[in-house]
Specification:
The structure is a homodimer. The first copy, chain A, is an all-alpha fold. The first copy, chain A, is about 80% helix and about 0% strand. Chain A contains 8 helices and no strands. The radius of gyration of chain A is 20 Å and the shape is elongated. At the A-B interface, helix 2, helix 3, helix 6, helix 7 and helix 8 of A face helix 2, helix 3, helix 6, helix 7 and helix 8 of B.
């Protein structure tokens, strides 16, 4: 019996380690994809997209491991939540990897442009997103729901940056039609980072669910107003 | 014993019914959100966003039900896959609902525009996406992996439409700076529909996993070239 309990603990540890390792890879992947955009580095972009396959494989490994533990050990209560939580975290991480891959894909469309406006905003958003990923992963490993809640609240900053960058990019597009094509791609890069932040907050919610068996009491702050933002081209022309 | 088996079957049926019902709501939600955009109907948009809360609640109900079945019945093999599959499908459906909500959110930014170009493309994409959702949900209910595979392959059409609409909208933006603001929102509406199609293909993959215990052998077709598309403003001016 003692032996079975120990094997079960080992299984749970292995599952958590796998999810945390996957998270580390996604964190690096996000940083690299944005770096590839900033430097318009097509080689780095290509490598980032390769890493995405590794991330996809890791999700499948975690799914298989979780399924094996469920079938062999019939866990209940907090053990069951730990397994379901790891499954959900892996799913969110895989989506974050997809967003990073999509960021990297745009490098080819940006590589011909001599000078990009709006990159500072992208870099700032990415820095925050990366810190958020790191914090939620730490909160997962430590089982620290307070830290998870703090990270979850900070997504608001990313949303605010996104709205402001959205306006900024629209303004560039109105000022110079030659910037329309690349600014559109940067709009989607910004959106991808914003979504990565959303997935990080999902993970924070899952950490809370794993540890407490319940969901966050407060509802999610939504400061992403980019989808309701209008910049008027006529005003712009008169204004400048 | 007989009685326990029957109760277990009832549990699995209830779970599947709940996931299918959630799917039906998402299907209607997607149709309504696009209709709200086309008609610039802010009331319909508001209702669509309310329904999103119901969709979120349904996911939680499915999670709770799945967790209860796992804890009480300790299922293995195909029963275990059916439960994990329902969980994953509910997750994808919730994301599709989010995308529909994001589409509806943009109605307010579009409502001041007298005439929108590019709506035909949006309507065509949405029609295909809706058919895809219906087909994957049917394949789930029927446990029909062949139908799931056929639906999965058809996502390619949505991707191709997305790429072509992306080019079209960029062209409008270059021709008339006053269209930049609304075309940007339509770009994101198109992107949301494309992502809804992606989630539908995820569900097709899950159906295959539930029924066969394995993943699709062929790799996913990727015809979404919008992220590498460049439209040159200078060419446009010379060309027209």
């Amino acid at each position: 019996m003692e032996r079975t309990v120990k094997a079960f603990d080992n299984d749970l540890d292995a599952l958590k380690s796998a999810a945390a390792a996957m998270g580390g890879l996604v964190e690096a992947q996000v940083a690299d994809s944005v770096r590839a955009v900033v430097r318009r580095d097509t080689d780095l972009a290509a490598r980032t997209r390769e890493i995405d396959e590794r991330i996809d494989d890791m999700e499948i490994e975690i799914q298989d491991l979780a399924q094996r533990i469920l079938a062999l050990r019939s866990p209940v209560a907090s053990d069951l939540r730990a397994i379901l939580g790891a499954l959900h975290i892996a799913r969110d991480l895989e989506r974050m990897g997809d967003h990073a891959k999509n960021i990297a894909k745009r490098v080819s469309a940006l590589s011909a442009v001599a000078e990009l406006q709006g990159l500072n905003g992208i870099v700032r958003m990415a820095r925050l997103a990366r810190a958020l990923i790191k914090d939620v992963l730490d909160s997962y490993v430590d089982g620290d729901t307070e830290a998870a809640l703090r990270a979850w609240r900070r997504d608001e900053e990313i949303d605010e940056m996104h709205t402001s960058l959205f306006r900024e990019l629209l303004t560039y597009m109105m000022e110079d039609p030659r910037s329309i094509s690349y600014c559109t791609h940067l709009l989607f890069v910004a959106k991808n980072i914003e979504r990565i932040g959303d997935h990080a907050t999902n993970i924070a919610e899952i950490v809370h669910f794993i540890e407490e068996g319940s969901r966050f009491a407060e509802s999610r702050p939504t400061s992403d107003d980019a989808s309701v933002t209008v910049v008027d081209a006529t005003d712009r022309e008169q204004g400048t």
